[in-house]
Structure formats: structure tokens, C-alpha cells
Amino acid sequence: MEMSKKSWLWMLVFLFASCSVGQKVVKISKTLQQKVETKDFTIFVARCLPSDLENLAFNSDVVLKVKNDSAYANLPFHGLLNVKQLETPTDPISFNGPMKEFSMTQNPTVGWNVTFKIESKPYIYQVFIQIATNGKAVAKITSTTRTTMTYFGDTD
């Protein structure tokens, strides 16, 4: 009887050990709604307007990222300065810092509207993002001294 208890005990220990060793780590992936509502999303830009009628292909570095209370962007700029109409700047729209005046509204059938302001010397940008429930996004970025740029892409 003693031998039978020991063998059952060893068999249970073996089964428990084999089950715990064989488990795969499951990464919990957030849904689009969770990403947007927790301010943890990235827009991978595919094209923009105005684009001077150039056929542009963007790489994966062309992003607009919102994380908690900060925003990061590295976006091409193809417009004009509003101050000097004939001058075309070559520097991109880039910022990395805290968002101000953040607001978000949701329409369950359409998606989300996100707005905020962000400073990046010498510019202050007003950002308006529409994210559809299928993940498509449109971001309009306005400055008082630059042409408004519109970017189209996918949200992750």
C-alpha cells in the first residue's frame, strides 16, 4: 500500500511538472479600442497631402505615436510656410513631448476623434486624428506658420 501511494505521488508530481513546463507564454494583445482609449497607439503613415504630386513610398519610420500623455511624430512636410509664401522648408514635422488640451470622443459605429496640441520649437502644432473602427487613420496637423498636412495610414 505504501508503494502505491508513493507511485501515485510521483506520478502527480511528474504530471504537474510536465504541464507547467510545457505552457507557452501568452502575450495579451490589446484590441484597437483598448489601444486608442488607453492612449497607446501608433499610426503608420502610408501617404500624405499635399505631396506636390510626387509618388512617395514611406518606410516604417514615418509614424505618429501616442503613448500615455506624450506624442511622437516623424512626418515629411511638403507644404509652404504661411509667413513667406515662396519659401519651402525641408525640415519634417517632428515632435516628441507632452500633449496639451487632449480630448477624445467616440462614435461606436465610426470610430474615434482625438485632438491635442504639442509644442516643437519653433512650431506649435494642432493635431486632429480620426481613427476608424477598422484601424484606418487620418491625421491633420496644422501650425500657424506652415501649411496644413494630412496623413493617411493604419493604426496599431
Map the helices and strands.
Layout: H1 2-21, H2 32-37, E1 40-49, E2 63-67, E3 70-75, E4 93-98, E5 100-107, E6 111-120, E7 123-132, E8 136-143, E9 149-155
Antiparallel strand pairs: 1-2, 1-9, 2-3, 3-4, 5-6, 6-7, 7-8, 8-9
Q: How would you describe the overall organization of this protein?
A:
With 156 residues, this protein is α+β, with helices and mostly antiparallel strands. The chain has one domain (32-155): Lipocalin (Beta Barrel), CATH 2.40.128.410. Helix content is 17%, strand content 45%. It has 2 helices and 9 strands. It has helices spanning 2-21, 32-37; strands at 40-49, 63-67, 70-75, 93-98, 100-107, 111-120, 123-132, 136-143, 149-155. Strands 4-3-2-1-9-8-7-6-5 form a 9-stranded antiparallel sheet. β5 and β6 form a beta hairpin. The longest helix is centred in the first third of the chain and has 20 residues, at 2-21. The chain starts with a helix and ends with a strand.
Q: Brief description of this entry?
A:
This protein is α+β, with helices and mostly antiparallel strands and 156 residues long. It is built from 2 helices and 9 strands; from the N terminus they run ααβββββββββ.
Based on Cα principal axes, name the global outline: elongated
CATH class: Mainly Beta
Record field, number of beta strands: 9
Question: At CATH's second level, what is the architecture?
Answer: Beta Barrel
Question: What's the average pLDDT?
Answer: 81
The first-to-last residue Cα distance is: 60 Å
Tally of individual domains: 1
Biggest sheet strand order reads 4-3-2-1-9-8-7-6-5
SSE-based structural type: alpha+beta
- How large is the radius of gyration? 25 Å
Low-confidence stretches: none
Order of helices and strands: HHEEEEEEEEE
State the helicity in percent bands.
10-25%
* Count of helical regions: 2
What percentage of amino acids are in beta strands? 35-45%
- What is the fold named in CATH at topology level? Lipocalin
Described by strand count, sense and barrel closure, the largest sheet is:
9 strands, antiparallel
